[in-house]
Each structure stands twice: as structure tokens, then as C-alpha cells.
Amino acid sequence: RLRKRREFLAAYKRGAKVQAAHFVLYILENDLPHHRLGVTVSRKIGPAVVRNRIKRQLREVFRRNKRAISPPCDVVVNARHSAASSSSQQIRGDLLGALSRWQQRRQGATRGSK
Fold first, then answer.
1. Alpha helix (H) ranges present in the chain?
2. CA angle 54, 77, 11 (to 5 degrees)
3. 72 with 13: CB under 8 angstroms?
4. Could you report the per-residue pLDDT of 59-108, keeping only the tens digit for each?
5. Is the dihedral of CA 108, 65, 20, 74 positive or negative?
6. 98-102 long-range CB contacts below 8 Å, 24 or more apart?
7. pTM above 0.70?
8. Burial of 114 per CB tally in 10 Å (0-12, 13-18, 19+)
């Protein structure tokens, strides 16, 4: 997990920004052998019960699908207000769709530079 403020700020500053219906993702490749996830859910989104449910669902989706992400990277997920009323399937589809768009964009940039 990402825990320190400087780790989040590095992802915000140097990472690729991917927007989805319920989230904004910042993805930054790291030099570690594993992925790291950071989740932010503002108090504006709802009470603690709602915020914690969103974070649990995001961590579970990431845990089950992290092998699908090719290079190890830091992923920061900022929840939007619409995430509070979304189902588990919507959260899963939104997160995986954003990650796949990032990978396609990344592979296109890699091919174009050669």
C-alpha cells in the first residue's frame, strides 16, 4: 500500500492520469517487484461507513486483478461522488476499464517511440 504523503504526491505529479466514471486514477511505474495501491475517499462522499465500503471494494478488485497489470506500478485511486451509490460490479468494471485504457495508452506510446 501507499501510505506516505510523498508517495501520493509523486503519483499525482509524475503519474499518468486516467479518468473513469466513478474514479480518477494516477498510475506511476515503480522500481519495486510489486504493485502498490493508494485510495483516497473524501469526506464529502459520505459517512465513514460509505467511505470504508468503497475502499474495501477497491482494494479487493485490485488484489484479485493485479496480475493483469504488466509493469509494477503505484496506483492512486481518488473516488468521485458517484462511487457512493455504485454497486460492486460497477466499481470493478470502472477500475478495470481505466487500468486497461492506461495499458493500451502505454503500449501505444512504447510502440511509437521505437
1. 5-14, 48-65, 88-113
2. 155
3. no
4. 999 999 988 888 899 999 999 999 999 999 999 999 999 999 999 998 88
5. negative
6. 98/18, 98/19, 98/20, 98/23, 98/25, 99/18, 99/25, 99/27, 99/65, 99/68, 99/69, 99/75, 101/18, 102/16, 102/18, 102/25, 102/27
7. yes
8. exposed
